[in-house]
Amino acid sequence: MNLAGIGMTSQRARLRMLERLKEQGIQDTRVLAAMSAVPRHPFVEESIQPRAYDDTPLPIGQGQTISSPYTVARACELACHGQDLERVLEIGGGCGYQAAVLSRLAKEVLSLERIAKLVGKARLTLRQLRINNVLMKNADGSKGYAAAAPFDAIVVAAAMPYIPDTLKQQLKPGGRLVAPVGAGESQRLVVVEALAGGEFQTRELEAVKFVPLLSGVS
Ligand code: SAH
After folding, report:
1. Are 153 and 179 in contact (CB under 8 A)?
2. What is the reported pLDDT for 74?
3. Does the C-beta of 67 come closer than 6 Å to ligand 1?
4. d(CA 90, CA 55)
5. Ligand 1: centre distance to CA 65 (Å)
């Protein structure tokens, strides 16, 4: 892979992407710094690299897409809410881009992806970028990953019909889960906060469009 590839064009495009993110309302300076530090073009095929910094989802193979920069930044901002994070779980790792952004906001990122081919590619890209605190696993993440819980944040990148209790239980007190919830065109971004004492507070935010969460590995 040619990481220098689109060189200065990519630098300028990335700066424009950051300006756009601020205009779109992303305020968390750590999230903006992470979006600025992680190049997006190495995560997509060379033929679409010139579009890597546009505000649009892009194909990553296997019928899946990398979410738009705004969607990634928004989910990270909601998940972190200005805190330093220890351990984060991502469900739906795809090409590894969001995991790479999260790797700059947390000490450790565990990312689950059900499609083995995507896991292989994502691991390679992360290694080439020398990102060592992301563990990508080929696993069905519908129920989270209890063995590595609790997490400071859980970020779900595929639409769930509802948020299972088992997933909420994997949050630390004060931790947050961000997930698209709903089917087809009627999905909304939902934030669940684990309060002290085992209670959860749920907020429904804007309408969103994600690929559906599927079960099993392939
Ligand atoms: N965060 C990703 C976006 C990937 S799109 C990125 O930055 O590229 C959502 C991904 O969720 C797809 O790759 C899809 O294969 C995966 N997915 C769907 N259902 C899943 C499940 N049950 N467990 C793990 N991954 C799942």
Report:
1. no
2. 98
3. yes
4. 21
5. 8
Sequence-separated (6 or more) residues with CB below 8 Å from residue 60: 43, 44, 66, 94, 95, 118, 121
Nearest to 65 by CA among 92, 39, 31, 42: 92
Q: By the 8 A CB rule, do 13 and 52 touch? A: yes
Catalytic center residues: 67
94 pocket-lining for ligand 1 (C-beta < 6 Å): yes
Can you give the residue ranges of every domain in the chain? 57-208
Residue 151 has pLDDT above 70, yes or no: yes
Q: How far is the CA of 17 from the centre of ligand 1 (A)?
A: 23
Distance 8 CA to ligand 1 centre (A): 31
Closest-lying ligand 1 atom to the alpha carbon of residue 214: 19
Q: What is the dihedral of CA 69, 97, 113, 59, to 10 degrees?
A: 60
CB of 92 within 6 A of ligand 1: the answer is yes
57-208, which class in CATH?
Answer: alpha beta
pLDDT exceeding 70 applies to what percent of the chain?
A: 96
Helices (H), 64-147: 69-80, 97-102, 116-128
Q: Is the pLDDT of residue 47 over 80?
A: yes
Q: For ligand 1, atom 4, name the residue with the nearest CA.
A: 94
Is the pLDDT at 190 greater than 60? The verdict is yes
Q: Output the pTM of the full model.
A: 0.95
pLDDT band at 184 (very low <50, low <70, confident <90, very high): confident
